User: Fold this.
Amino acid sequence: MGQLVHREEPSLEDLLSLTSDGDMAAFKALYDRTAALQLAICRRILGRDDLAEEAVHDAFVSIWQSAGRFCPENGSAMGWICTIVRRRALDRLRASPWLHREVAIRPDEAGPSQATGSEERMALEQCLKELAPHIRSAIRLAYLYGLTHSELSQNLNLPLGTLKSQLRRGLIALKECLTR
Assistant:
């Protein structure tokens, strides 16, 4: 009977290093191990499968071209990859004003962690409707799509301090509405 030889998979850091040397097999392995998560991130941000797939494709072209810039001392390989992919998705979101409006004001999306039952979801939606549209959009972009304060500031073309104040007031108003 033959013995099974257990070979350890190379780390993502090793795959990035090999990719920076032009190793297509390493790049394919890197893609195979990380692309599903990256696609999920892009779908969450962009809300459309086709745009998410394009963003992931663009991101992996960038990863292929810039793998030599990865520095393990600055963070994990997965974090570096996620950052590149997320930035590509956010760039697409910013570059498409029609997409931004479609994503930001989608009324049917409360998100699974924000409301579990239909009553809670309806209450949340009603309270969100009471907020000013720009505050409602900022809250949705922050809590459903994971944009940071800086990204929101750029995306909504507001000074960072103003955005933070508006978000805080909006969240306070939302909390008050939900406790009525």
Notes: Residues 99-178 form a domain with the Arc Repressor Mutant, subunit A fold (CATH 1.10.10.10).
